[in-house]
Description:
The protein is α+β, with helices and mostly antiparallel strands. Among the domains are: 126 residues, Sandwich (Immunoglobulin-like), CATH 2.60.40; 61 residues, no CATH class; 74 residues, no CATH class. It has 17 helices and 14 strands. Strands 1, 3, 4, 7 and 8 form a 5-stranded antiparallel beta sheet that branches. Helix 13 packs antiparallel against helix 14 and helix 16 runs antiparallel to helix 17. The longest helix is centred in the middle third of the chain and has 63 residues. The radius of gyration is 45 Å and the shape is elongated. The model has no long low-confidence stretch (mean pLDDT 89).
Amino acid sequence: MSDRFTKIFSLSPNIYAKDSPVLFVAGALLRDIETGGILGQLKFRNVDSTRKHITEMVVELTCYDAEGNEMEDIVEFSYLGMSLPKNAEYGSKIPIEIPYAETAAISVSVRIVSFEDGSCWFGTGLEWEPLPEKRYISTMIEDPELVKQFRIEYGNNSNYSYERYGNLWSCVCGAINSDPDVICIKCGKNERLLKYMDIRDLKKNCEKRLEDEAIQREIDEEQARKSREAAEKRAADEREAAARKAQMEKYYLDKRIEAEAARQKRLMIIGVSAGAVVIGLFLLITQYFIPLSKYNKAMEYKRDAKYEDAIVVFNNLGRFKDSKEQAAECKQMRDDKDYNTTYIEAAKLKANGKYDEAIELFQTLNGYKDSAEMIEECGVLKLKAKYDAAMELMEDGDYVGAAKGFESVEYEDSAEMAQLCRDYISYNKGLLYLKNGKYDDAIEIFEKLGDLEESKEKVIESKIGKAKAFMRNHEYADAIVILEELADDNDEAAKLLLDSKFGYVKTAVKDNAVDAKTVEYYDELAEENYPDISKYKDDVKKKSSRR
């Protein structure tokens, strides 16, 4: 609204009545500064569990003054000409004129909702109340690391606890959803994963993450230590090389001085001496300076993590300095680097649910870190994934597929769940038998199922259905046998028992087959003042006296 209107009241958010197809998301009262009039605004959402479009809706607004006194008449307003699909919102731009200028607050309810198929829902007499406030997950979990783990597993926008309100549910992102939707309309999370969240698993995963982070810190610290040691060793090598260079320069200077002093004395053998000096220089260069240059190059390769190049050079240097030890160290550093890369890749596959591929990579690590435990954990998670898939089929009502899924995996209570699915298959088969009038088959199934769902009630319903079938065929004696078993605990059976006894009496009189049972039933019905039973008094008494 423009600056012409001032908000004087806000309705509590998310007002709802049990099983309602409508959720009031927001509402407000506005005062027109120019005219002094009061307008109401409501924003509501279609949360119908049958996914039908809403075409019309009549709401009732109860108005209150500033002291909380209720106004005399309820304001009724109709929303017409809609085609509001499931989860869509409407009404925020439609003003509702309030006739009482002193109105300071309102409450809202729905009288009737009309759908696209012509059906209606009536909300008169229901309690319309705000949904409970959302609970922040940080107020429910004190450990900040556990809160962090919760957001790692359910997303950074997961700030609230999962809640259920009748046919509505609140996602961890804060969005309100409605049955039969199981995917959040805001963040796309599956309600089944939220519903079965186990704090114990959360704690276990948190502990595992903290352990992995601690291990990674140790690895990083070890790499930093090795880098420092390598730098220190490189500096020491450079100092040693400089010292050797200075020593060699001094050595050659001394030699030149000695040679010059003895030059005159050794004139006759100068050619031989000169040849010896050349050979010495040659040996010094080839046996020390050239290997030293190669050694320093190999150390550069090592510092730059070019381990393969470093290994080749160190191996070629043989026993020069500590080349043998340096080659072995480079091999270990190369293997650690390769193993760590493979470990990280396997861990990613595991996190993405690709357990077979993860196991295959972990098996190549030869026990590196906790790869053996990871292989075992992937095996368990693989079984759990199959179990969860079967559970999802079961929740979607695909009991045949779910039973096959549970039977294919040995995990926790999978055998019991497979049997439960088979029981539900039998239960649905029993419902089909009941619907098609195969009462004996239905009774047999429901009696075997015991306490499953409404099996005991369905046994009674099947027996009553069987009794009704006997009554339709005028086989009242058979109907009476069934109904006498049920009449003490079931009002419908008790009424049908009287009807069956009346049918028995009526048929016996008509067929001139009055017997002791006829008289017994007649007396019971007369005592109960059963309608029209008195018409058969004379016939029953006469025919019974003849007998």
